[in-house]
Design a protein that fits this description.
The protein has 145 residues and is of the alpha+beta class. The protein has helices at 3-10, 23-33, 53-63, 89-99, 118-144; strands spanning 16-17, 37-40, 49-52, 103-108, 111-117. The chain is 47% helix and 16% strand. The chain binds adenosine monophosphate (AMP). Residues 36-37, 50-52, 54-55, 77, 80-81, 101-104 line the site of adenosine monophosphate.
């Protein structure tokens, strides 16, 4: 299984925000779309950063409520780990586990094409394991009769 299989199942919608958007507006975007992270992009295609609810929590703990007036660029992560549609799902699971992040933008030729979350990956793996279990069960029961 590759990331392209995950994208086929979940779709390729990606929510982006510009780096000069303030954190207050970012909170509204996260709440509106019921998501935990967005890609930061000046043009909607380049990946300039990623910002998640964890960045907001950390900045609030460090600097207090004034954070909500700061631009997203102040709290985002600039060194973004990305993948491509060809990346194997198991490889990305390992990247997410070791990097301790739950979102990875998918890029092709430096252009953002999708985003996958740990939830999308888990759903894909569970589906795959269920198919494997069903075929093993049917193999065992047919061999027994
Ligand atoms: P998350 O688990 O995705 O909510 O993110 C946890 C932390 O990792 C936050 O500081 C994010 O900005 C950062 N982060 C999230 N996704 C990535 C990524 N793909 N590459 C690098 N950092 C990331």
């Amino acid at each position: 299984m590759r990331i392209s299989d995950v994208i086929r199942a979940k779709g390729n919608a990606v929510v982006t925000v510009p780096p000069d958007m303030d954190v207050r507006a970012l909170l509204a975007v996260l709440a509106e779309h019921r998501i935990g992270a967005v890609v930061v992009s000046t043009d909607g295609s380049s990946v300039d950063g990623i910002v998640s609810e964890r960045d907001i929590v950390r900045a609030l703990a460090d600097r207090g409520a004034t954070v909500i007036s700061e631009p997203v660029s102040e709290i985002m992560t600039s060194e973004v780990q990305t993948c491509t549609p060809q990346t194997p799902v198991v490889e990305l699971m390992s990247v997410m586990t070791h990097g301790r992040f739950r979102h990875v933008p998918v890029v092709v030729n430096d252009q953002l094409v999708a985003i996958v979350s740990i939830g999308d990956i888990v759903k894909n793996r569970v589906g795959e394991l269920e198919i494997e279990r069903d075929s093993l069960t049917s193999y065992i029961t047919s061999a027994a009769t």
